[in-house]
Amino acid sequence: MSAGTLVSGKELAAHIGCRPSYIVQLKREGRVVPADGGKGYLLEASVALFRDTRSPAHAGVAQRHASGRSAAPAAAGEELGEDDDDAIIDSSAAPEGSSQARRSRALADKAEVDAKAAQRDLDISLGLLLDRRDVEAVLGQAAGALRAELERMADTLAPQLAATVDEVRCRELVWNEVSHSLEELSRAFREVARPGEVTA
After folding, report:
1. How many angstroms separate the CA atoms of 145 and 134, rounded?
2. Which residues contact 154 (CB under 8 A, 6 or more apart)?
3. Helix, strand or coil for residue 34?
4. d(CA 97, CA 135)
5. What is the pLDDT of residues 38-67, one digit of tens each?
6. Prediction pTM value
């Protein structure tokens, strides 16, 4: 390209190897050369100035170039050109706490919630997930059944143990009742604890 080639902010960003939004920052720092009228940039001069000011030791170069141009330096509240629109829509370049940054975070949070909801619906449809309330109801019934079994055990064992002095027989009687109670509890748990299933 010939000297003085006029390019847009996006085109200049492609030559420099950065995001278009970074061109806005370079413009404010006086490290690129805007064209007369503020529309577009001078390619060769901007690339050269950017390279010259890349090192902190050459920071004065940018100031000399900025003061030597007739165009006023970009102020904090200057109006962005049409090629600078990427600075507005580029959420990664938005300052922390800005409305753009908050909006980006809100969109990211919503996408995460939607993804989790979709995964939950899929797991339910595949039978891999159970509703928490259903599980709690069954567990409550199982706990009630266990309590009833333990209370029944005392009434059942008392007369049998009183009628025998054989320790082995006493242990057998107790174990039979415990095994019966455990089996009843296991049966209640099997209604919800099927292999491969978890609760929501």
Report:
1. 17
2. none
3. strand
4. 43
5. 789 999 999 989 988 876 554 554 455 555
6. 0.32
